[in-house]
Amino acid sequence: MVTSSSVRLVSSTTRELWNEWHAPSGYSINVATVNTTQISYLLCALDDCHLLNFMWNTSTGELSDRKKISLGTQPITLRAFSSKNTTHVFAASDRPTVIYSSKKKLLYSNVNLKEVTHVSFQFRCFSRHLPIAKEGELTIGTIDDIQKLHIRSILLGEHARRICHQEPSRTFAICILKYNPASGEDFEMHFVRLLDDQTFKFIPTYSLDTWEYGDGIYDGGCSGGCIAIWCAWKDKASKTSVDEGVQNVWEILQPNGRRDNK
Fold this sequence. Notes:
It is a single chain. The chain is an all-beta fold and 262 residues long. The protein folds into two domains: 6-142, Methylamine Dehydrogenase, Chain H (7 Propeller), CATH 2.130.10; 159-261. It contains no helices and 21 strands. The chain has strands at residues 6-10, 17-22, 29-35, 40-46, 50-56, 63-70, 77-83, 86-92, 97-102, 105-110, 118-119, 129-134, 137-142, 159-166, 171-180, 187-196, 202-207, 212-219, 226-234, 241-253, 257-261. The strands form six sheets. It has a four-stranded antiparallel sheet, with no helix packed on it. A hairpin with a 6-residue loop joins strand 1 and strand 2. It is elongated and about 80 Å long.
């Protein structure tokens, strides 16, 4: 049972009041639940764009392990829906999010929409479809299976200043800064390194001129595999950056090679 500023947990059999949670004074709330075979959660969205979640003991009504997060900058509307016989919650706001439980943890997955006003209902005959509303628009979409994010760290041993991915050549291009201690002072050396995006092995490395450093790098946009590198210059006397430079466009050839256009 939900009032304008509190949530009451009532036994479905005896109608006994088990527990009651009051929102902070002056706040209204929106409520949804996530129920699993292991843990159930109570979600309370406040109109200040914060979301509270509690672990909920459905046998006693006890609420515990309160946590608070911020979701966007607009008030949040919660809507429970079912996907593969599991309860999820859609949090509609200017940062729409799907909330679900996995391995005894409550997880949040961003939705690739800029803003959602409301998720009004779910089709029984199309259980994977959701009608998503925002101002002047109604979209019927599906929720893809949530994938695990695998993170792999590649040790460079150098300072990576800029990076871009070049799809046709299947490479990462990285602007690298390295210090040369053999010079007796922190003398900077600048390179552009290419990294295979499948094996993460280094392929050719190209040295920039002595007083030149990579200040920007991006996909050149051509189908053959080009990268554009903005190289700024440093003043030799003061070793500070100057507002001048040159843009190089390199074509990544197969096997590994390059063509310069300055």
